[in-house]
Amino acid sequence: MVPIVKISNLDKYFGRLHVLKNISLEVMPREVVCLIGRSGSGKSTLLRCINFLETPSHGSIEVDSVKVEGGEKGKLNRQLIHDVRLKTGMVFQEFNLFPHMSVLENVIEGPVQVKGMDRADAIALAEKNLNHVDMLWKKDEYPMRLSGGQKQRVAIARALTMEPKVMLFDEPTSALDPELIGEVLNVMKKLAKDGMTMIIVTHEMGFAREVADRVLVMGDGELIEDAKPADLFNSPKDPRTKALIDRYHAEEQ
Description:
- The protein is 41% helix and 25% strand.
- The protein contains 9 helices and 10 strands.
- It has helices at residues 43-50, 75-87, 103-113, 119-132, 148-161, 178-194, 205-211, 229-234, 239-252, and strands spanning 5-14, 17-27, 32-37, 58-63, 66-69, 88-91, 166-170, 197-201, 214-219, 222-227.
- A 6-stranded mixed sheet has the order 6-7-8-3-9-10, sandwiched between helices. A 4-stranded antiparallel sheet has the order 2-1-4-5, with helices on one face.
- A hairpin with a 2-residue loop joins strand 1 and strand 2 (17-27).
- The N and C termini lie far apart (41 Å).
- The model has no long low-confidence stretch (mean pLDDT 93).
């Protein structure tokens, strides 16, 4: 099977600060990969490089056979980045919904404006995805009238309506009150069961343990561990991973 995401020798600098150091990674179709690590380890930067919200300094990123070299410029490069972004859906910490648009208008905006989809087709697709995240009943509401968990479920529906090949989640529950986290994680579990390829930056260790096919651990801008959840949580190899897991086990008790 051919990887749907392939990252090769990726480096990212912010000025002199070397944030990502020679990252190489493959993700297979239908695979759920969770990225964990301490704050500042490079997890979100790596995720944002995959759809070029951050521009890689060196190396290459390939998504569904579209390959972009880091550090390149020009018209062809811009087109390739556009193609990669069409293949990736992104869900952020802070929802990023347009406050002046209803739920339905938020969800159809991308397909209509970016992909040129017929409005009626976009509405049908949006309603299907809103129903999938149990938010169709709120389609005419505005974001200010939604809870944080509801906003994040709308954001997931919005990303799905672009029909991506890969979903990227950047700490999707970190801005939510504890009682609302479960409703978002349940939607993500449903997506995993449906076979959506997902790369998830998360601090939710229990979720990673239950849903991920693989868990990657980042430390100081490097991938320091890559293992199946059972192996990682039962016998971490790197001391930094062990410290993370020990803290998780302590919080469980």
